[in-house]
Amino acid sequence: MLRRLLGLRPNANRAVADAVYARIVAAARQPEFYADWDVPDTPLGRFEMLSLHVFLFMHRTRGGDQALADLTQELTDEFFTDVDHSLRELGIGDMGISKRMKKLARMFYGRAEAYDAALQAGDAPALAAAFQRNIRPDLKDWNGAGPLSLYAMDVERSLATQTSEDLLQGRVEFPSPVR
């Protein structure tokens, strides 16, 4: 992150990270999540979908070579920069940003841990329960949790078939959530 703040990352890496992040954002903003699966179309609901897609990309690149690790770090930095900008656009001032960013970072990494455990086990019900707990805790029985868990597992399988070379060129594809 310090390298990024000082502007020391190569332009080629920036272009690739920007391309991948744009694909992640587009995947997270697919209308089916909000219209069909009842993910709240709110700043927090959008954070949840963006977090899920960033996590899924991170999950795919884990254990890869240094170039993939560098790309993943760039994306993580971009994600948190984007979250920071979003908070500022919501009118949160400098005094409140740090506290909220820490809370959102804890939320992200906590979710990543829960989602990773469920994906590693191939446990769609556990993934659905994690989504219920994190995305719609206000609903006793959220009907979108099951379809979202199956979608996340589809994304995991899809990303696994995409080569590291493609990812490093900024070519990443996410399946459609339509079932």
UniProtKB/TrEMBL annotation:
Residue ranges of the TM segments: none
Signal sequence extent: none
One Pfam assignment: Ubiq_cyt_C_chap
UniProt domain Ubiquinol-cytochrome c chaperone: residue ranges: 36-174
InterPro entries: Ubiq_cyt_c_chap, Ubiqinol_cyt_c_chaperone_CPB3, Ubq_cyt-c_CBP3-rel
Family from the record: Belongs to the UPF0174 family.
Protein name in the entry: Ubiquinol-cytochrome C chaperone
Species this chain originates from: Aquibium oceanicum
Lineage: Bacteria, Pseudomonadati, Pseudomonadota, Alphaproteobacteria, Hyphomicrobiales
